[in-house]
Design a protein that fits this description.
Oligomer: single chain
Structural class: mainly beta
Number of helices: 1
Order of helices and strands: EEEEEEEEEEEEEEH
CATH topology of one domain: Jelly Rolls
Mean pLDDT: 85
Low-confidence stretches: 1-27
CATH class of one domain: Mainly Beta
Amino acid sequence: MSGKALAAGGPTNYGAHYRRLAPRRSTQIPQATAENSMKYSDLQEHPEGGRYLEVYRSANRVMFDDKKTRTALTHIYFSLETGQVSRFHRVAHDEVWNLYQGTGLRLYQWDGKSDNIETIELSSKSMNFCHVIPGGYWQAAAPIDDHILVGCSVAPGFEFDDFELIDTQSETAKHLLTIDASLSHLM
């Protein structure tokens, strides 16, 4: 993808590789009531570990330079129980993590090239409740000590076609472990 695309109908720059198409009515998230509040059983197993529930998929679309379109934004609830981890994976676009419940979690992010794997703590202790993982970065997460519930937003919206779990036999995984072998439980 190359070139710079601007938002249709306005000056907002949505990035160098995609542009916003004409707005549509967004998917409405129903208000929580006793009858429809989220239950753990509503969450599905996620390939990276943990459980998730998609709660928002925008009806607005963005178009990439190659004319492919994608929903503008998605949001999920993501849950990890004590002892569970989100294994190293990457998605094509920026992902925002927000801590909702639990003591906190440690996020790990790596560009896949450098010798620096960043550790980010989301917790009330750190007074940090939100972090953005850049698109294309390897990421993993683990609860600090107990169950956590986070929200994860991806823009443009998440599609499993853009999701890649790290191959534990790959050169990428081997390089990651030479940087920090203690992260092997996140593979």
